[in-house]
Amino acid sequence: MLHHERLRPPSHDYPADEWNVVENAFHPEFLAQLETMLALGNGYLGMRGCPEEGGPKAENGTFINGFYETRPIIYGEEAYGFAKTGQTICNVTDSKIIKLFVDDEPFWLPDAHLLNYDRRLNMKAGTLDREILWETPSGKQVSIRSRRLVSFVNRHVAAISYCVTILNAQASVVISSEMTANEHGTGGNEDDPRLARAFPGRVLHQRASYSKDRRIVLCHATEKSRFTLACATDNALESSCPYSYKVAHTGDFGQVAFTIEAQPGCPIQLTKYMVYHTSQTASSEQLCGRAEWTMDRVMSQGFQTLLASQEHYMDDFWHRSDVRIRDIREDRTKRSTIEVQQAIRFNLFHILQASARAEDTGVAAKGLTGQAYEGHYFWDTEIYLLPFLTYTSPRIARNLLAFRYKMLPQARARAKELGHRGAMFPWRTISGEEASAYYAAGTAQYHINADIMYALRKYVQATGDESFLRDYGAEMLVETARLWADLGFYSDAKGGKFCINGVTGPDEYNAVVNNNAYTNLMARENLRYAAQVVEFLRKTEPDAYNSLVHKTALEPSEATAWTRAAENMYVPYDEKLEIIPQDDSFLNREPWDFQNTPRDRYPLLLFYHPLNIYRKRVIKQADVVLAMFLLGDAIPPKMKKRNFDFYDPLTTGDSSLSSCVEAIIAAQTGDMDKAIRYGMAALLMDLADVGGNVKDGCHIASMGGTWMMLTYGFGGMRDSDGMLSFWPRRAPEENAILRFPLIYRGQMLEIEIGLDKVEYVLREGERLVVRHEMEEVELTRENPLAVRPVSRGLTI
Ligand code: BGC
């Protein structure tokens, strides 16, 4: 099932552009959505796209990844092992405010008479740019040009270049550069479980506040999680117009107000630098000191240096990651192609913004674009984001996997608490502790353990990073394999097969079920891979093996038990329908009455009690269909088709994690029409607000899914057997050419899928063998190019 685009901004005000998301008129009705779409971030620091003036705003937000406050989770009725502590990402000090007054009249977008308005998310440079021509009530024309960036290279730093020129008159101008903390941003609707809960009272407690000339430092700390935050701003003003300034600050507020006697045509250039440092161990004094060191450094370098490093970073990113689409007729002006290109880049750019400098943290479901889902990390990272990162920015992928490794102590403790052996990763968390307050759609999603191991395997295969596997991965494998071995059992009722009961699969509309097929299939992989790696280390790296045994108290018999469980894993199969039932009870459920469910009753989770949903045959998001993608080799093509035909009409797509996967399987099973429709829904999830909640933040998983949809779906890429292979799919009437790079084992491959041929180019590296359809193709530095014809009609 497909939802439809909800956001239909007039195209003349939001023109399609390959490299920019452009807004050419101020539309208050799209304020909230644009705050999300035009948010800037670097994986550590994120700022929603509010105007410089600090308003108007729907939900202003500044976030630091991993900076959260805790609260006790209150249950009406307690039970053993429920998660106890909620964690919510904090809305931290907003430092980006720059207010403008001309002859004492404030510049305020909703009231201003605008002669020109252009705001754009510049995805090539990594900046948010704005150009405005404002005519004041007394007829003075004021040009305001600004560029905002959150630096990828200096992750603690953001900056704004803000230039005001009165074009046609003299004027008295005030530019007030401000910062404010404890501004309440959570417009939490308590009825929507996806949104963050508001904290009563203040979250950031004042620790220090001081100024030095035009520099202001505000320092705050959270009470329970014991984080400290130092936020510093500094302001450089250049102008030949005479000016003076005043500085003021309180515990929660800072202001440097410049009063300028503006001359016609004489630019007033303010550069505002913003620095954030956070820590759970450093004192306020130490942290303020760090913020000042960083500030001294960036101020001495200046805005142009910051901008140049940002552009350089972006060039490198696009070189490694850009997916290009081109119309065969070379008609670059065709709006639909440009729109698709824009949407592709928008998705990839936001993934970068969510993850680039996420060092020692995960990636939140909304990145740093909103507070929804409380800033928590889910399986979204491993299953939806890591494939893109592994193949384009392996360093980021490694950081994210290393972060999971850091959680291992808490995962071990959680397994113990629930009476399991091994380790049990939290369904949702920031700190590493389980934070899901609703176990049926939370803790019960044991599959996250196998998901993380799946991503690990993919990462190791694609990068050849065996040291990571040896030093960190193996330990996680042992502990997760133990979990599965402990959780499952050999069931007489199922012919002695290894069964896993009482879990929730990816589809949260069928909770706490027995033998969820996705879970069993992924657990099987986890068990197999763990046994394989342990055996490999035992045979080839005795020191590493001994250290693993030491760290995990591994018994020699364990790997054999894992292999046995994997080989005997129960995978549900229905003889009559010849499909894989989602779980033991799925086919027994009464079909959901889709016909009499009005469109405005979706997502179902907001309108029906969970029991009404759980007892029916209705699906929130791809589950068996996802398993068919991730473990494609385990399922024969014909069965894939039957499964897809069966599950597709039952899938509401109430989760944004669904469309991209459905597009891939539709492409694989040859339904190109559906593949394109689902693909477009995934691609436009945020730009066209397909899910209706982009105001709350970007759907980062779906964004990663769009890359998978293009590469694995339309590119027909496979990587499960240690070699990259391609079997491109395309719709006969489509004219588009798709081109994308991949980094495989340190070499860069570029693939272009044309109408009837595929071009493989080894851009960087010595030698790479890939498979095209059934044939192995060798690419070398001397012969880097191979062109092969595409055959049609095959399903894989
Ligand atoms: C989905 C989960 C997902 C979470 C965060 C939920 O709606 O059902 O699979 O992990 O959102 O994106």
UniProtKB/TrEMBL annotation:
The active site is at E508 (proton donor). Residues 345-708 form the Glycoside hydrolase family 65 central catalytic domain. Residues 717-779 form the Glycoside hydrolase family 65 C-terminal domain. Residues 23-280 form the Glycoside hydrolase family 65 N-terminal domain. Substrate binds at W379, D380, K620, Q621. One of its GO terms (molecular function) is glycosyltransferase activity. One of its GO terms (biological process) is carbohydrate metabolic process. Belongs to the glycosyl hydrolase 65 family. PANTHER family: GLYCOSYL HYDROLASE-RELATED (PTHR11051), GLYCOSYL TRANSFERASE (PTHR11051:SF13). This is Kojibiose phosphorylase. It comes from Bradyrhizobium valentinum.
